[in-house]
Amino acid sequence: MAENQDENVELIEEEVITLYDDKNNPVDFNEVAVVEYEGDFYALLQPVEPMEGLDEDEAIIFKIVQKDDETDEFEPVTDEAVLEAVFNEYLKAEAEFEDGCDCCDCEDGCCHHHHDGDED
After folding, report:
1. 43, 34 in Cβ contact below 8 A?
2. Beta strand segments in 48-96, E
3. Cα separation of 93 and 51, whole Å?
4. Which of 1, 57, 75, 83 is most open to solvent, judged by the fewest CB atoms within 10 Å of its CB?
5. Which of 76, 53, 56, 52 is nearest to 64 (CA)?
6. 30-65 burial code (b ≥16 CB/10 A, e <16)
7. pTM to 2 decimal places
């Protein structure tokens, strides 16, 4: 049975996460999306400041590992098949968001809520 993976993607607008590099220097990232894939959660992060070896529109994918109720760790993903699958799920969700849906007449894609008093 096929599962609709697009429901497992959360697009995020304004969330900054600070991670630490191998020299324990803080690096700020914008969290672009969280994708659930095969029971695990993955974060797509873009550096706030330009990063060597990474284009401005590229993101790094980290697996989110919950250590306890208050602590998540971000582990770099090195498996190319997982990277590609997670990124493709993100692209599908992004395309759906940009295309909108039939639930309302929003011009900027679907707003996913009903307009009070705006109905024709």
Report:
1. yes
2. 60-66, 72-76
3. 26
4. 1
5. 76
6. bbbbbbbbeeebbbbbbbeeeeeeeeeeebbbbbee
7. 0.70
